[in-house]
User: What shape does this take?
Amino acid sequence: VRRWPLVAICYLLLIVLPACRQEDGTATSSSSGVPKIKFEKYTLPNGLEVILHEDHSTPVVAVNTYYKVGSADEQVGRTGFAHLFEHIMFMGSKNVPYPMFDRLLEAAGANNNGTTDNDRTNYYETLPSNALALALWLDSDRMGFLLPTMDQAKLDAQREVVKGERLQRVENAPYGRGGEVISAALFPKAHPYSWPVIGSMKDLGAATLEDVSSFFKTYYAPNNATLVIAGDFKSDSVKKLVEAYFGDIPRGPDMPARPDPAPFAPPRDTFLVLEDRVQLPQVTYAWHTVKMFHPDDAALDVLSGVLTGGKNSRLYKKLVYDLQIAQEVSAYQAGGRIDGYYQLSFIPAPGQSPAKLDSIVRSELDSLVSHGISDRELARVLNSQRAGFLDRLASVFGKSEVLNIYNYYAGNPDYVQEDAARYAKVTREDVQRVAKTYLGAPKVVLTIVPQGEKKTMLTGGAR
Amino acid sequence: MMTRSRSSIALIALVVAGVAVAQAVKVDRTKAPALGTPPKLPVLPVETRTLDNGLKLMIVEHHELPVADFMLVLGSGVAMEQAAQAGVARLTAEMLTEGTKTRNSLQIADQMAYLGVQVGASLSSENPWESSMVSLHSPTGQLDSALALFSDIVLNPSFPAQEFDRLQKQRLTDLLQRKDYGPAIASEAFAAIIFGASHPYGRTTSGTEASVKGLKVSDLQLYYQTNYRPNNATLIVVGDVKPGDIERRIKTLFGNWQKSEITPPTYGVSTMGGATMVYIVDKPGAAQSSLKLGGIGVPRSTKDYFALEVMNTILGGSFTSRLNYNLREIHGYTYGAHSFFDMRKEAGPFVAQAEVVTAKTDSALIEFMKELRAIRETVPEEDLSKAKRYLQLQLPSSFETTGGIAGQLVPVSVFGLPLDYYNSYVQNIEAVTAADVQRVAKQYVNPDSISVIVVGDRKLIESRIRKLNIGAISIRDLTGKPVK
Assistant: This one.
């Protein structure tokens, strides 16, 4: 993400989609009630995928381009490059001198930005419907003609901005270094998910103009991109515009093979400690799990709701509500294109030790594995998801994201019903089983402690 | 992992059709395309009603999805607190979902999750000093149960002692954790310094350790009894609903809510004024410095509202604004620099701010001061017109969703704006001239009379800040108080 307002670079795209329920709140096994998104998909001769969705309810249109490249495609020694490159895409192109890209969009009333995660990079504009051609012109010019005006000064300028971004998100944020420490410990050395999307300061410093040129030539070609346009437009005339602006961009070479790391299983628990400028410690457990849309992905999402979603969830109720020995507790399944992990994290209340909370967390997990969950617990989690799902479809930008996510990760933009169905099918036994299978396996345990309190870290000996 | 369904077969047919339809049109890539006339913001059909007890209703039909948003806006916030009870307004709101006469805290949470609805109560983010809000977001299929829960929370809170004890402890821990976060320290110190302790705007909305520790359940009950009254409230309803039906439901549920006179808050005298001062708050080991420069701005009722909107957009209100372009794009000192006027019922703060790399703290201050001076000069037509278009043309996208529309009506309620406010917004922005921008910049942005707050690693930044001679230097603690 390249600018304020702050939106986290997600480590792995986190997606929680809904199940259905009847009027009285009962979860059902059918996926009826989840609205479909009508769309049209076609491919230009140069390989650009185009997905159009008309919605005339507000005179607004969203243009959202996915490039199939993320930090997982980076080379060791150049971590953070995909995201740095995202910044550079706003620095002008052959027919759009810097800084006109953003100025023209603002003068047209647009909101625009880009985001990078492990698996993909996207660029989007939401703008009044009369300005659609402007977005297509700007996005096509940087897709086809970025390099003619690229220079060292542009690279250096955005390198400094990204270093500032890293300071703000990682080094100067409380507990900010935890994420990269955990992914480095959980994934094998050189696994593409073992380094952070933002990259290291050293690697950001090492990026060269030659890297920019070769990265662009390799990944920023129409045959590696999907253009989604959602909102208030007429398909017939927009197809002509898309053809006019994007049709003459030459197809790039075939993409290099995407990273496909060997399967792995952490052999043993790893206990780590990190000192930070914080008042209270934080404990995070991370387990290796599964990628997005894996058969167990939905059950792991549901498990998160059972454990930490709302006041009645098991860990929140026990630690925060009843015993009042934790300030916060959270858990989530993060499944990406290649692989995934599950993370559970808590901050003890003042005066409470990580060890005490750890023993309660483990006994709660044991109890769930031994006795399973109730119908009510399952229904609460599944029913809560529907509202969030409808909300994602409320704006044209939300719909452009949903279409892109399904198209990229599920191989089919028309995946709403299937996605809803995979949640509706989750049973109590599934939740119990995934807790046992995945959370019973070796894990990484990171204790972030206030300065000078390393001795309070969790270790294997605490059991 | 690609499980293709039957629909992918249909897609193949569309591939062919798509290409066939798209016959070539010629475009000149060397020029930006000419854009048609921007769409007009459709007139927002707000239905208004007032119940006998004074509760105002604003209803907008929006039938795109089967959902509805309810926002009950109370015209009281932090400014209604006594200083010694700082934090009571926020805790009162948060206690509404912790128990009613017939539902306990866990039952409320269970019902919300089971129905798939979201209910929240807090200070309003629009203006926490003068408003609080109880909100409901619900699929319309659940409206009966959801509204029963919502009205129960608003009308029958029971303020259970054990739930209060828990929230009080959590708030004290929140206050402790604020010390970890530079921008939060900077905000707190900035407010305390420019408004002073006797003015409500000089406090944080969460209260202090001492004030929160001193609060009792009876303080919250008194705040509730005084301020949660129908004649002090507007209920905004946007969604897949019919106004007549909503009015009937609301009359049934809220018709017996008793009204009561409310005495408006008094505001102390703020301490701001005089020559520019620099306040350094030491945060040893900080990887960045948190900068805030500014002073007391204007109330929301200012006649200069639209000119200030345009001026601030040019200065620091958008990505391409001068502050962000200079400090981020040209100098690389920060991930983002911006400015805003936080307008409230009384004059709120004007702030320019950024998180900057420690080694460039002094250089960043030089550039901030340069831009605060430059905005007082005549702005070029290009800057003026870009800012005006940006403000005018972004408006439609704010009205896309039920939550978005309801959110746009909150300031209408809080500040008593006319119902056609948004429909005249475009003309009001259009009327702003370069002379207006310069006049309001000169009047409200004066770099010779501001407070500059720097939260950072003092030993690395102090001597270089002193050399800038921006103003006298004062060393402050994490809450803005002088360090001896």
In short: Chain A touches chain B through 104 residues (CB under 8 Å). Residues 152-171 of chain A form the longest helix (20 residues). Residues 191 and 346 of chain A are 27 Å apart (CA to CA). The first strand of chain A starts at residue 40 and ends at 43.
